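Renewal narrative, Specific Aim 1. Our central claim is that a sequence can be written position by position from structural information alone. The example that follows is taken directly from our test logs and has not been curated for this report. It begins with the structure tokens describing the chain, in the order in which they were read.
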């Protein structure tokens, strides 16, 4: 049993927290909760997942057609996945096209950021006008689906998803007056500037991961 003490320092080093950032890597698999992701302990291995995967590297997205659990011990929507060490958060389930979509992190840290497309159902009243008198002579409600890009800030301490807009980012970064002032000088809520401000804040206020998870 003399070899056990020799291994303990290596095991402790492997579990020691490090600042979460763009170079952080996660164990490959499926995470069912935010706590599991913070602990870097996937709940389900890829070998227990069914479906066909498509990785859209340029868009930082992964789609899994026909996602399911082979063993039947798990059910429900996954929280996140890790592929080649990179985390992707679940963003939507397209029931009609039968795929689950996951978005990669554009910013990684205490305040992370993701972007993804979502379908918005629009209902508009359309009118036809008489060119002579300018009066509407026919009207009808027209319904259609439209794709829109959504951007969100992820508070990695608790998993909250917040709008990526100027007021929200300034509130989150309130402890750093220089970052708030820089955003305040921007006439338009420019997304690249907000992402840059988040990255600077994350460097100043690192989030150590993994976070130990109880009862696992």
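The sequence written for that structure reads:
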């Amino acid at each position: 049993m003399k070899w056990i003490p020799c291994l303990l320092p290596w095991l402790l080093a492997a579990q020691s927290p490090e600042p979460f950032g763009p170079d952080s890597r996660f164990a490959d698999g499926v995470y069912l909760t935010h706590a599991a992701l913070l602990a870097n302990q996937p709940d389900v291995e890829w070998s227990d997942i069914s479906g066909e995967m498509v990785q859209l590297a340029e868009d930082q997205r992964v789609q899994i057609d026909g996602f399911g659990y082979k063993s039947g011990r798990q059910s429900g929507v996954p929280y996140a996945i890790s592929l080649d060490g990179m985390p992707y958060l679940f963003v939507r389930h397209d029931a009609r096209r039968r795929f689950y979509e996951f978005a990669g992190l554009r910013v990684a840290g205490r305040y992370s950021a993701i972007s993804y497309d979502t379908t918005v159902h629009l209902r508009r009243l359309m009118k036809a006008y008489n060119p002579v008198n300018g009066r509407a002579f026919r009207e009808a409600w027209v319904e259609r689906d439209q794709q829109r890009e959504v951007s969100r800030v992820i508070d990695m301490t608790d998993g909250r998803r917040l709008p990526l807009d100027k007021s929200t980012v300034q509130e989150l970064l309130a402890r750093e007056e220089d970052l708030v002032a820089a955003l305040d000088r921007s006439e338009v809520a420019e997304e690249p500037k907000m992402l840059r401000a988040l990255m600077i804040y994350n460097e100043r206020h690192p989030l150590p991961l993994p976070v130990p998870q109880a009862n696992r």
